[in-house]
Design a protein that fits this description.
There is one protein chain. This protein has 117 residues and is mostly beta strands. Helices cover 0% and strands 56% of the residues. Strands 2, 4, 5, 6, 9, 10 and 11 form a seven-stranded mixed sheet that branches. A four-stranded antiparallel sheet has the order 1-3-8-7, with no helix packed on it.
Length: 117
């Protein structure tokens, strides 16, 4: 089982980035996929999640700016991040959890997003 995030980097405030997470080793379509992030000195927090049916939910801090999506044919989820703020700076992690078994879950290694001028 593997989750690999990509797309992180340095961006100016107000800019955009698109993160990707590609999965392998499990039946992707059966898994709820979630983006988390962790800023230095802070707890890891949920950013956005997407169900197996494609419904999504967001943290209040990113609503209207971030969009999560999934492509089951490519075993990939995306996080489109617009209007980025300095407080979005964090390591972003991809998480997979089987829809009917909470203990069947996996994490990616993370990708750094830095928002700074």
């Amino acid at each position: 089982v593997q989750l690999v995030e990509s797309g992180g980097g340095l961006v100016q405030p107000g800019g955009s980035l698109r993160l990707s997470c590609t999965a392998s080793g499990f039946t992707f379509s059966n898994y709820v996929m979630t983006w988390y992030r962790q800023a230095p000195g802070k707890e890891r927090e949920l950013v956005a999640t997407i169900s197996t049916a494609g419904s999504s939910a967001y943290a209040d801090s990113v609503k209207g700016r971030f969009t999560i999506s999934r492509d089951n044919a490519k075993n990939t989820i995306y996080l489109q991040m617009n209007s980025l703020k300095s407080e979005d700076t964090a390591v972003y992690y991809c998480h997979a959890r089987r829809w009917n078994l909470n203990t069947d879950a996996y994490w990616g290694p993370g990708t750094q997003v830095t928002v700074s001028s």
